[in-house]
Amino acid sequence: MFYLVYLSAAATPLSHAELVALLAHSRASNRAAGITGLLLYHDGSFLQVLEGEREVVEDLFSRIAHDPRHRSVMRLLSGQSEQRLFPDWTMAFIDSRDPQTWPAGYNPLLNEPLRAADCTRCPEKVRSLVLSFTRGIRRRIGAAALW
Fold first, then answer.
1. Residue 125 burial (C-beta neighbours within 10 Å; 0-12, 13-18, 19+)
2. Cβ atoms of residues 106 and 137 within 8 Å
3. CATH number, span 2-141
4. Based on C-alpha coordinates, what's the Rg of the chain?
5. Which of 20, 49, 53, 72 is least buried, going by the fewest C-beta atoms within 10 A?
6. pLDDT value at position 61?
7. Residues contacting residue 6 through CB under 8 Å, at least 6 positions apart
C-alpha cells in the first residue's frame, strides 16, 4: 500500500460550508478510486494523507498540486506500508477550528501554524501528528494499525 502526505496553503480561507462541500466531493471521488486518508485543515493550511495504489495516489496528488485552491503544495512523506492507516475512511476530516471534529488524539502540535519549513525539517513531527489522529480515530472505531 502506497501513502503520501502533503502540505499546502489554501489560496483563500475556506468557510465551514466550503470545507463540507470539499469533503463530500473528496469522499465520493476517493471511494471510486480506492483511496483512503485524512484531511486536516488548520489555520489556512491543508495536511492530507492519501493511501491506495501508487499510480492512483500519485495521479491525485498531481491534480491537487495543479488545483488553484492550493498554493505551495509540498510532498512531506511518501512510501510503502503494510496496511492502510485509514482503511474505513475515504477521507477522515479534522477542522482545527471545530473541537467537535477533534478525535481523542488531538495533537498539541496544532497549537502552532503548520509551516512548510518545520514540516520538511522534521518529518517526525508530521508522522507524529498523523499518527496521533490515527490513534484517536482508531479508538473510536476499535481498530489498530501502524505506519
1. middle
2. no
3. 3.30.70.100
4. 14
5. 72
6. 96
7. 46, 47, 48, 50, 61, 64, 73, 74, 75, 76
- Output the CA–CA distances (angstroms, integers) from residue 28 to 36, 44, 106, 132, in the order listed: 11, 23, 26, 25
Single-letter amino acid code for the residue at 74: M
| pTM of the entire predicted model | 0.72
Residue among 32, 43, 30, 42 nearest 4 (CA): 30
| Amino acid letter for position 101 | T
Q: What are 49's three cell numbers?
A: 494523507
The percentage of the chain sitting over the pLDDT mark of 90, rounded to a whole number, equals: 24
**Identity (one letter) of the amino acid at 76?**
L
Residue 27: pLDDT band by 50, 70, 90 thresholds? confident
- Residue 46 makes CB contacts below 8 A (sequence gap 6+) with 6, 7, 8, 9, 10, 39, 40, 70
102-146: pLDDT as tens digits: 544 444 555 555 555 556 566 666 666 666 666 554 444 334 333
Dihedral sign from CA coordinates of 100, 69, 126, 141 = positive
- Return the C-alpha cell found at 133: 489522529
